[in-house]
Amino acid sequence: MAAMQRYSIFSLLRGALSGHRDWQPAWRAPEPKSSYDVVIVGGGGHGLAAAYYLARNHGITNVAVLERGWIGGGNTGRNTTIVRSNYLLPENQRFYEHSLKLWEGLSRDLNYNVMFSPRGVINVFHTDAQRDYWIRRHNGMRYAGIDAELLTRADLARLVPALDLSPGIRHPIVGGVIQPRGGVARHDAVAWGYARAADALGVDIIQDCEVTGIDVEAGRVTGLQTSRGPIGAGRVGLAVAGHSSRLAEMAGIRLPIETHLLTATVSEPVKPFMDKVVSVAAAHVYVSQTDKGEVLIGGTLDGYNSWSQRGSPARLEDILSAACEYFPRISRLRQLRHWAGVMDMSMDGSPIIAKLPVEGLAMTGGWCYGGFKATPASGWCLAWTLANDAPHALNAPFSLERFRTGAVLDENGAGPVAWGH
Amino acid sequence: MRRQPFRTAEGGHLIDRTGPLRFDFDGHRHEGYRGDSLASGLLAAGVRIAARSFKYHRPRGVWGFGAEEPNVMVTAGIGEEARPNLKATEIPLSEGLEASGQNAWPSVAWDLGGALGLAGGILPAGFYYKTFMWPARWWLALYEPLLRRLAGFGPAPPAPDGAFHAKRRVNADVLVAGGGPAGVAAALAAARAGARVVLADENVRFGGDLLRAPGEIGDGDGLAWIDAATAELEGMSRVRLLRRATVTGYYDHNLLLVAERAAGDAPPGTPETRLWFVRAREVVIAAGAHERPLLFAGNDRPGVMSASAAGGYAHAYGVLAGRRAVIAGNNDSIYSVARLLRSAGVSIAAVADTRPDSEAPDLPCRAGRAVERAFGSRRVRGALLRRTDGRAGDRGERIACDLVAVAGGWSPAVHLHAQARGSLSYDEERGLILPDRPGGANRSAGAAAGRFDLDGCLAEGWAAGVAAAASSGHERAAGEPPRSPDRSAGDAPVFWQLGGGKRFVDLQYDVTAADVELAAREGYRSVEHVKRYTALGMGTDQGKTSGMAGLVLLSEALGRPVARTGTTTFRPPYTPVPMAAMAAGLIGEGQDALRRTAADDWHEARGAVFTAAGHWRRPRYYPREGTGEDEAIEAEVRETRAGVGIVDVGTLGKVDIQGRDAAAFLDLVYANRMSSLKTGRGRYGLMLREDGRVFDDGVVMRLGESHFYLTTTTAQHHAVMQHMEYLLQTVWPELEVYATDVSEHWFAAALAGPGSRALLGEAAPGLDLSDEAFPMMAVHAAAVADLPALVFRMSYSGELSYEIAVPADYGLALWTRLLTAGREHGLVPYGTDAMGVMRLEKGHVTHAEADGRTTPDDLGLGRMVRADARSIGVRSLALPALRRKGRQQLVGLSVIDAQARIPPGCQVAESGDMRPAPPLGHVTSFCYSPTLGRALALALVENGRARTGQTVHVASPVTGFSTAAEVVSPVFYDAEGVRLRG
Amino acid sequence: MLLIPCPFCGDRDETEFAYGGEAGNERPADPGAATDEAWTDYLCFHDNPKGPHRELWFHRDGCRRWLTVERDTWTHELRSARLSRP
Amino acid sequence: MADDATDARRSALAGLDLGSRAGGAGGVLLGEGPARESFVLRGPVDDPAFAQAVETALGAGPALEPGEARECREDALLIRLGPDEWRLVAPLSDDGRLAARLASELAGGRGALVNVSSASTVITVAGEHAADLLATGTGIDLDPAAFPPGRAARTRIGNAQALVHRRAEDAFELHVPRSYARSFWEWLEERGREFDAAVAL
Ligand SMILES: Cc1cc2nc3c(=O)[nH]c(=O)nc-3n(C[C@H](O)[C@H](O)[C@H](O)COP(=O)(O)OP(=O)(O)OC[C@H]3O[C@@H](n4cnc5c(N)ncnc54)[C@H](O)[C@@H]3O)c2cc1C
Ligand SMILES: NC(=O)c1ccc[n+]([C@@H]2O[C@H](COP(=O)([O-])OP(=O)(O)OC[C@H]3O[C@@H](n4cnc5c(N)ncnc54)[C@H](O)[C@@H]3O)[C@@H](O)[C@H]2O)c1
Ligand SMILES: Cc1cc2nc3c(=O)[nH]c(=O)nc-3n(C[C@H](O)[C@H](O)[C@H](O)COP(=O)(O)O)c2cc1C
Ligand SMILES: [Zn+2]
């Protein structure tokens, strides 16, 4: 296969001279082969990353990624793009910090600018109880070797001038914490960058190919039924986010996952006025401004099982009123578009990256709100698990068995209520 | 110079020519009329460059007539009043309006950013994905700030929106979206049939396309018919007409959002926006169609515009978009537009029809020709016409003009149909995307359904109205539908472009045909990929004019039919909605009511410092003259422990439980037994979640054989109520139990301290307070301070203590009377902080400890759990991970250095050096104990109870604090409970 | 925003309700006798169909009844709603 | 004691000093209704003994339509709020007699009666735009055909749960949880700006 065309300022200048006629496809559009060593189901960031790391880290290149629509069109393409590792539980801290480290080198690793921008992720708090919680969480991060700092109101005023710090509001902000290395990345570019790099290593990326069945013989996966015909597979990795339960069901497996809606919205673009990512957890709203100028606002779940990818205006009212309350000048902007994603909500709020009870079958899923930031590490761990037929220490805690033994990883202490996390 | 050089001498049905209005654009003063839009005002004034494009800062002028306008977005208002990104076509002119251009410096007319256009060559779609990767640090320091500088349209607003925005929820039988001929006919038919109708149109006046171009209905003027029909509707009590009201979103179960804007001359006090939430049984989508552009080099120059818009400015506003026009298109509308413009005074230089054999003897026709290029840079100065059949030897015809009006056909406004998840079909022959199967109780009619003749629109609208009314149960005869002599199909061959060069597809985001082709070449083949790679259709117009052109170009580039390419997803809002309108009524207490206890007025008058407890506010402490916060809190603790204190506990949840099976039910709900309680006695109760984690705690009192009263924590009260109803209605429906929430009915205050018995004795002379008559955990009804009360003897503070509950209407009286009576007893009111200190000294747990992860055993409460696995949560306690050794357990920490204070959020570690290492646990609650003279904490620590006596470190790396502490029992104070006896 | 036809109150907005998840998830009658697997099935492993779903809703701001609702999780079409305990 | 107690009653809105805000004649008049005695009645409607007890005590049976507010003995009102739940609202002057009678009729049988007299604050909303003001915050259909005078509904309005009772086409009584009453009042006033809401005493 042809070597990957390098991207750089020089290639861009050269392109300009030739009217940009010489750019090669970022990835091929191959016909599916009759079988592969490993097939990854789901062409979101996670699936594409898994394929890339299988090829790059484990030398397994006879790999296909099957995507029923267009790559990156799932939650990868519709999230609020926040990347951070500021978790409470040690298992999560380790995993997400590994992910953050991969993010830091990702553009150069892939030779595709995923625009990872470590602009700092801030959480603010209003009450003593919230203060104790957030500081404790950030102290815990320090013990895990992760960057974390405390912010006074004066710090907040300096870092986020748009934030309403006045004492007269319903829930005055008394302070905040920041993970300076946290930030955002360009969601689409993550899918495209992984796809391009994986393709260059020989991975077949097959779009418009829906998996409709999983073939299991004698307890072992042998292949997949798809809308483009059967495809044999030595091993199969599922990375289908909100669709995890459906795929697992095809192999006769039930998962502790429910599918829920999460809404996000953008304003019309305006000139930059906010460069931090700010989360007001108590009001369930997080706000950032993209490089194109839109204010990007995310909130909480609609709170009932749904696959519809379109949320309720009631939730929009919640999200936008909270945004206007804490960032008052946003109230002068107008909402341009809103959409929703179908979230794979696990029963403890933490992911499942594990072998499943069918030989050769593994999954990554149960990402809840938080899987975009996990993209590199999730792919990395799934690749490891498929290549070694065993989990890596990083993902060993994210097993399916934990729901049987009670060893759940419940960041929020919400209990086994999928929509509670 | 004439103030409105491009205004005709007469005509313009939307304007009122009596007395001009003045307005400012980009620092220049202009004149217009009441009824003008800013766009028509600018055109009348001869302002051609009214905007700059996003990426290349190219000069841009008005393109459209209404919601579809892609170019001219302005900032209206100045300073704090500025609102960015408003479409000039949607801003009503008002006296003194100040607006400015955007994305330009110093002005849109003379913008230095225009130089960027020269760099266009190295900035193709997605260029940033290919560069700016080295060195890594430069991304944040240099590259991204540069990109951000270029981003955005309008300025970020410096101040919040101060206007009043209203909301209204209404139910309707039929909502009609769009008030053109089809919509008005639908509304009239439905209303006459007896339906409750809402008719919404985004324009100032009903009429739709008839606002732009005259048409005939019945035997008269179309607009006159519309006026008569709307007058009839206006007179019907079950009809609501909404003007300037855009149906922005179509949601589940036929809920539609309609954003109504205030009129330009609305009286003060009129809400700036009113957001209607219309729940309709049936919806008629009569949203019309958007005129398509044609692609040719220079098609973005000021002066190139939609032909129907050019006609519309003349017809509706008496404004000439130019003096000498070339009109080009692929359908018959170019002739009517040409005649309309000519009669308004525009000289028609040429009418180019892509169809080879069309003719119009009264006009300078150029059949079989289209525009290949527009000349001029700051505004259009001419057009090059060329044969569309590509015949050799055609040297083209260059025609001077200052207006190129293009009519590329129509795209039905299928947005609402698609938002409702109706399917779309592509009519290859007509080149139209049409609504197919509806996704809700709706039907499309008129131009929105691909019907372009007036007669057909009226007929379809009428039929849709009749059908919608019938489906919602209204079948009165509606009469005959209106007719029109206009029965021309209006169909056009599909035609998009001629020639090469820089052809703009998405004017707003500067997406060119070359960008679309590049995306296809690079493998971004899905239409969704192209959208995201090029930003096509992502602007504030959401591709209303560019969408189809993009689809066709992509399909051509990939050599596949348009139907296979499909569309991108249509999403709300149809046009942008003010954030402030969405937030209306939901800011501050409007969203999050502040709950006040019955004694709240007293606390406030006393100057209490409050804290939030869920929705409630509670006094944290009562400030004292001459001392600080800590001293005041410590004094409240000391004085309560030494004498007597009173605290407002009105926020606790309270539930009345009655019914035959009440006792059995409580045994199942709590982890400990309640059925063994004697009447008149209470017990501390522990509620688990089904997964074995501690859910809530409180006190259960037995008032009668099958009558109980229980308290919940403030935070979990609603959750507990819901939980109990869940159990009663779905898990054990056979139990007869009535759980009634009485939290709002009862106010409660606790008297605590050795002096409480004496004080209560005085306030409740009829009550025998001796240990025998009134032991711990007993309850009595009595008059307290002459008020009907329930008195419980229980203690949270560890002192002798009574909780007194009265109906909340008497709450303030109880509180003030006790305080008055308590004056001689040294009664001190205390707040939640002092309460927190006292409970911590006693080792009582709260939500900081019962954080949703801890089991009863973790919290040292394991012995309370009854071994009956039927009770909620008990079975889970047998799961291996909940029985595992080495879990974190609740311990007390006594700080060794008596001067040290504990900061918030500490971890507990083996060593004090704060180097990365797994901590042993964390502090859950902490205080300085005035009673014991040192800092104390409760903590969850791995294997905690086994560490009793060991030294650990309490540390907060983010503040650089660490101190040593001894692991002790969580009960720091009066472990034997001597003080409870008083 | 869903419109839920409460059998007692009539049509009400989704915002008046609290969601309660899968309706058919029966609590083991004798939890003490349930295996860990059976018990955790009940706790954590629920139906999650794309399509018709029987689910519970609590009419918190209305009649305070738990409803059993049949709703399609893809189209949101609401097929039926009845009181969980008649 | 009774007298002392009566004097001691205080409305949750007392702190707002509505008297000082009164005046004006807007499109909506807001006011505070008189304090009432109020009871939650629970019981199995299909149990004849229960139905009989209610009928005997109140002069109205429990089998009312959902949301129906039926006048009964002593100027009291019985409102059906759920399949097995009613609200009994009696004038303060009744002094608990009606409830006592009901309690004694119910004694020994099924059902429950719970005093919640202090649990809610009654706010009156009247005037041409009364329904419009409520419609700024609730989705229930307030069209008089769907929700005629004499009907009641528990629902969510704005920032609170409320029991809405339509007394006349343009007059409503809202029973709002006491602790929410002030916030809710302020929300009503703020949303009422659109209708020139004024305070009536
Ligand atoms: C509104 C919103 C905001 C969010 N905000 C954040 C955030 O700020 N930070 C963060 O870290 N996370 C966030 N998330 C979560 C994050 O987006 C996801 O967890 C993450 O993107 C999941 O990536 P994925 O690759 O696993 O899934 P996806 O990108 O959804 O990819 C799964 C793919 O599988 C495909 N697929 C499904 N079924 C089949 C089948 N049968 N055959 C073939 N292919 C199939 C789908 O088409 C899809 O493309 C947010 C999510 C949403 C919806
Ligand atoms: N000659 C031609 O080729 C041609 C082509 C198209 C249309 N037409 C004419 O246009 C008319 C079509 O009639 P019609 O009633 O179907 O359409 P219309 O365009 O006359 O009316 C639609 C109305 O809906 C409004 N609208 C659109 N979306 C809306 C929304 N989301 N919320 C609120 N308002 C919205 C529009 O502003 C417009 O006023 C006929 O007169 C027809 O002859 C002619
Ligand atoms: C970070 C981010 C920024 C976005 N910015 C825009 C935008 O500027 N304009 C726009 O139309 N949509 C924007 N979107 C939304 C997308 O158009 C689209 O709605 C979203 O990716 C979901 O896909 P779907 O609507 O095709 O289902 C943005 C989405 C994301 C995730
Ligand atoms: Zn109900």
Description:
The complex is a heterotetramer of chains A (421), B (982), C (86) and D (201). By secondary structure, chain A is α/β, with parallel strands linked by helices. Chain A contains 11 helices and 18 strands. Chain B is of the alpha+beta class and 982 residues long. Chain B contains 21 helices and 50 strands. Chain C has 86 residues and is mainly beta. In chain D, the strands form 2 sheets. Chain D has a 6-stranded mixed sheet with strand order 8-9-10-7-1-11. Chain D has a 5-stranded antiparallel sheet with strand order 3-4-5-2-6, covered by helices on one side. Chain D is globular, with a radius of gyration of 17 Å. The model of chain D has no long low-confidence stretch (mean pLDDT 94). In chain D, α3 (48-58) runs antiparallel to α4. At the A-B interface, α1, α5, α7, α9 and β16 of A face β6, α2, α9, α10 and β31 of B. Residues 6, 8-9, 59, 62-63, 65 of chain C line the site of zinc ion (ZN).
Provide key terms for this protein.
heterotetramer; A: 421 residues; alpha/beta; eight-stranded mixed β-sheet; 11 helices; 18 strands; 28% helix; 25% strand; globular; D: 201 residues; alpha+beta; six-stranded mixed β-sheet; five-stranded antiparallel β-sheet; 6 helices; binds flavin-adenine dinucleotide; binds nicotinamide-adenine-dinucleotide; binds flavin mononucleotide; binds zinc ion
Which helices and strands occur, and which strands form pairs?
The complex is a heterotetramer of chains A (421), B (982), C (86) and D (201).
Chain A: H1 9-17, E1 35-41, H2 45-58, E2 63-66, E3 82-83, H3 90-104, H4 106-110, E4 121-125, H5 128-143, E5 149-151, H6 153-159, E6 175-179, E7 183-184, H7 187-200, E8 204-206, E9 211-217, E10 220-226, E11 231-238, H8 244-250, E12 257-267, E13 277-280, E14 285-289, E15 295-305, H9 313-326, E16 334-346, E17 352-355, E18 361-365, H10 375-388, H11 402-405
Parallel strand pairs in A: 1-2, 1-11, 2-8, 4-13, 11-18
Antiparallel strand pairs in A: 3-7, 4-6, 5-6, 9-10, 10-11, 12-15, 12-16, 13-14, 14-15, 17-18
Chain C: E1 3-6, E2 10-13, E3 18-22, H1 36-44, E4 52-58, E5 66-72, E6 78-83
Antiparallel strand pairs in C: 1-2, 3-4, 4-5, 5-6
Chain D: H1 2-8, H2 18-21, E1 29-32, E2 36-42, H3 48-58, E3 69-72, E4 76-82, E5 85-91, H4 97-106, E6 112-115, E7 120-126, H5 130-135, E8 152-157, E9 160-168, E10 171-177, H6 181-191, E11 198-199
Helix pairs in contact in D: 3-4
Bound molecules: flavin-adenine dinucleotide (FAD), nicotinamide-adenine-dinucleotide, flavin mononucleotide and zinc ion.
Residues 41-47, 66-69, 73-76, 78-82, 210-211, 239-241, 243, 247, 262, 264, 298, 341, 343, 367, 369-373 of chain A line the site of flavin-adenine dinucleotide (FAD).
